[in-house]
Amino acid sequence: MYLYLGSQSKSFLNCCYKDVISLSLRKLSNTMDVLITGGAGYIGSHTIIEILTHTDWNPISVDNFNNSTPKTYDRIKEITGKSIKHYDIDLKNIDRLRVVFEENNIQGIIHFAAHKSVPESVDKPLEYYTNNINSLINVLQLQKDFKVPYFIFSSSCSVYGSTTALPVTENTPIGKTECPYAYTKVVGEQIIIDVAHIEKDLNYIALRYFNPVGAHISGKIGELPNGVPNNLIPFITQTASGIRKELTVFGSDYDTVDGTCVRDYIHVSDIANAHVKALEYLQKETQATNFDVFNLGTGIGVSVLQTIQAFEKSAGKPLNYKLGERRPGDIAKIYANTEKSATILGWKAEKSIDEMMDSAWKWQQNLDNQSL
Ligand SMILES: NC(=O)c1ccc[n+]([C@@H]2O[C@H](COP(=O)([O-])OP(=O)(O)OC[C@H]3O[C@@H](n4cnc5c(N)ncnc54)[C@H](O)[C@@H]3O)[C@@H](O)[C@H]2O)c1
Fold first, then answer.
1. Contact at 8 Å (CB) between 45 and 72?
2. Domain extents for the chain?
3. Which of 7, 183, 210, 284 has a CA-to-CA distance to 125 between 20 and 30 Å?
């Protein structure tokens, strides 16, 4: 027997159906299981702390420790007093990953896990494409199979390429990317857009981070660079602690406040907090579209020399640095327009460059005092 529904009745039923779904999601939301891929890593671990501190959600980490250590989970417990469930699984192995979805009632996913080094990606493009793209596809496949309603993706301001339109808004066109790493983020976002187009009941956000720096205020967790750091702040702290002899500032003749490159540094705990806000926003189910993208920055451009001065103030000693040649691929300046995140997510970065440097230095000193 066929039941004919006129368009009005259909939309009434759709409406009821959506209400029932959203009600049940809301009911689950207080204690929902949230899958954190890459939860032992730099930003993932800070986000787990933010979740444990500010929500009733139950974070579950999947990480294969290719750029981290399981000790991070102990440190999270030291800081929060809470243990979290975690799995040592490579996301490229979908069969093993499926078990995580079978064993838990996952309602939200924050997908951090990826290789992230720009120069390494130039040397090992296949490794970067394989890891970053296959991991994302597997997580999205299981999200779809298990109908997990909320998905947040770690993207990057590197998708804007070498844009000169500043500050960068979310409508700034995706630029020509400088390296395979950045291209994995461009492709990653496109894959999500295509999936979201079909999976109308599932909701997706891509967060484009500018330059995450600093460490948890306790100094017990922070960035753990593998080998020689590619990023400025770990290079600064390692130079100050004597691991590196000298810092070279790449280029001092750019058209900027003091000739050195300008970036939008943002405290990692502010970045972590944005993930909580983004997931809360998705839970409200008021969004106009099931895929959206947000910049995460402070909106303030800080030069390399200004960063060094802030660090010297925090450490209370001068840093051994010299001015050198420009480095290929560096753009003069980039910083975010953060209005969209403020208006829609109700999120704003709060920590200053001094707090970023204080915490980074505290973390480095803790690292120096123990074998982490
Ligand atoms: N840190 C930055 O400057 C920055 C800037 C923009 C975007 N991002 C993005 O944010 C995310 C997190 O960055 P991060 O700085 O915390 O990096 P990170 O290397 O500290 O953390 C990533 C974690 O993912 C894990 N991982 C990688 N591949 C995996 C796999 N196949 N299976 C299981 N685990 C895997 C690593 O072991 C690591 O613990 C990444 O996607 C990165 O591209 C980072």
1. yes
2. 8-369
3. 210
CB 144 within 8 A of CB 195: yes
Catalytic residue among 42, 181, 183, 281: 181
d(CA 111, CA 34): 10
Pair of tokens at residue 165:
């339109």
Q: Which two tokens stand for residue 236?
A: 């600064």
CB 91 within 8 A of CB 135: yes
Distance 1 CA to ligand 1 centre (A): 53
> So what's the architecture of 8-369 in CATH?
3-Layer(aba) Sandwich (3.40)
Q: Which atom of ligand 1 lies closest to the CA of 116?
A: 43
- CB atoms closer than 10 angstroms to residue 272: 24
Q: Is 336 in the pocket of ligand 1 (CB under 6 A)?
A: no
Q: How far is the CA of 42 from the centre of ligand 1 (A)?
A: 7
Tokens of 200: 């109308």
Contact 161 CB / ligand 1 (< 6 Å)? no
Average pLDDT by consecutive 10-residue portion of the chain (372 residues)? 32 39 45 96 98 97 96 97 98 98 98 94 96 98 98 97 92 89 96 97 98 97 88 96 96 97 98 98 87 98 98 97 91 95 97 97 91 52
CA–CA separation, 129 vs 334, rounded Å? 25
pLDDT of residue 178: 79
CA pair distance 30, 312, nearest whole angstrom: 43
pTM recorded for the entire structure: 0.91
Helices (H), 253-352: 268-284, 304-315, 339-340
Q: How far apart are the first and last CA of the chain?
A: 67
CA geometry: angle at 36 spanning 30 and 41, to 5°?
A: 135
141 burial type by CB count under 10 A (0-12 exposed, 13-18 middle, 19+ buried): middle
Could you give the 3-state DSSP secondary structure of residue 52? helix
Mind spelling out the 3-state secondary structure of 212-250? EECCCCCCCCCCCCCCCCCCHHHHHHHHHCCCCCCEEEE
Question: What's phi and psi for 149, nearest 5 deg?
Answer: -70, -25
